[in-house]
Design brief:
Elements lengths: L3 H5 L25 H12 L4 E4 L2 E4 L9 H11 L1
Antiparallel strand pairs: 1-2
């Protein structure tokens, strides 16, 4: 089992970017059930909180809420 708390606490300034998985290389198996897709993604990305996209290090932060990304985008574009 992956220790998500340990992965969340990795400092992006101290990580060797050569050890990060490039998210562009990840293929999501869309035919799998949701729980298996999540498990497969975590297995492939190795750290869901820290990866790279090309030469850029990407740190993801997840808020515990029922609001989805789509909800936030709709809210953002209504404000613009």
């Amino acid at each position: 089992m992956v220790d998500l708390e340990r992965l969340r606490s990795v400092n992006p300034d101290e990580v060797d970017r050569n050890n990060l998985v490039d998210i562009q290389d990840i293929v999501v198996e869309s035919q799998l059930p949701k729980e298996e897709r999540i498990a497969n993604f975590i297995q492939n990305i190795k750290n869901p909180y820290l990866c790279k996209c090309g030469n850029m290090v990407v740190q993801s932060v997840f808020e515990e809420t029922d609001i989805t990304l789509i909800d936030r985008l709709i809210q953002y574009f209504r404000m613009a």
